[in-house]
Amino acid sequence: MSVTQTMNSGVSFRSMAVKPPSHPTYDMKGVIKLALAEDAGDRGDVTCLATIPLDMEVEAHFLAKEDGIVAGISLAEMIFHEVDPSIKVEWSQKDGDHVQKGLQFGKVSGQAHNIVVAERVVLNFMQRMSGIATLTKTMADAAHPACILETRKTAPGLRLVDKWAVLIGGGRNHRMGLFDMVMIKDNHISIAGGIINAIKSVDQYLEQQNLQMEVEVETRTLEEVDEVLRYTSQTKSSLTRIMLDNMVVPLPNGDVDVSMLKDAVEMINGRFETEASGNVTLETVHKIGQTGVSYISSGALTHSVKALDISLKIDTELALKVGRRTKRA
After folding, report:
1. What's the sign of the alpha-carbon dihedral 101, 104, 110, 112?
2. Residue 300 is labelled as binding a ligand
3. 254: pLDDT confidence band, cut at 50, 70 and 90?
4. Of 45, 100, 91, which is closest to residue 72 (Cα–Cα)?
5. Are the C-beta atoms of residues 164 and 326 closer than 8 Å to each other?
6. Which of these, 75, 89, 182, 325, is most buried using a 10 Å CB contact count?
7. Is residue 128 a known part of a binding site?
8. In the chain, what are the helix, strand and coil shares in percent, each to the nearest 5?
9. Which position among 19, 107, 153, 328 bears the catalytic label?
10. Of 150, 216, 224, 309, which is the active-site residue?
11. 245 an active-site residue?
């Protein structure tokens, strides 16, 4: 079942500011249920059961505690709907908007018990997604005119959620998994007995299976780039992109030397898409983006994410007072 078929959780797919990437088997509703179940255990929220009357209704507000790009608003609505379809959620911002520290950007109203039960799961997703989106936005702006991509270095079980956050932040998605793109990497090349043998094997496989999909090969030296270019100039191939791996060389002064990467891009001369990988940071991405490379991939977008600080408060006046005291609002 596709992800679009499993997102019927009270949120209009059409109304989303940024739609999630497609996946043939990802069960978003199942992920939400699992997150709620691991929190509730076999007893539910014992603190809520002890302190909050089941029929009490409240209003709570989402509060940004630092500047950043907000993401996960559509997912938050799905979670609230899963807990209690009668909960009402209103937003002054949408996924991908910039929020400033101290901004109240959303309101949720309904049964107090159910709002508090959903609170932590909602915030866990929103804070992670907003952290990814915030870093992606900064990297994407710096990388221009190259496009910034994430990788498969995502949290297990949260592949689609993490990649959705990258889209919200203005990045582009790399392959979703092992199934939607051929990526010939160093281990494949070693096992196949060389880079050309690996490309030949892929071409034969795709032809035998009557498959059409993007094909990328990883190169680590200018000699490998030349080898690939010579082969593909003489033989029809399914290759669409060449990865230029670790061709950004760190220097002792903290800068990077991109001359090797630039030489590789000039050798390819637009015959294939190009992707720079390795030594990509906030400090280096702008220089890499000026080499003419098509894409820059960064695993750090998702594997080293710093969550954006967001809270959901019923007594917002007290929350702001405490926030000012601790310099967080």
Report:
1. positive
2. yes
3. confident
4. 91
5. no
6. 75
7. no
8. 40, 15, 40
9. 153
10. 216
11. yes
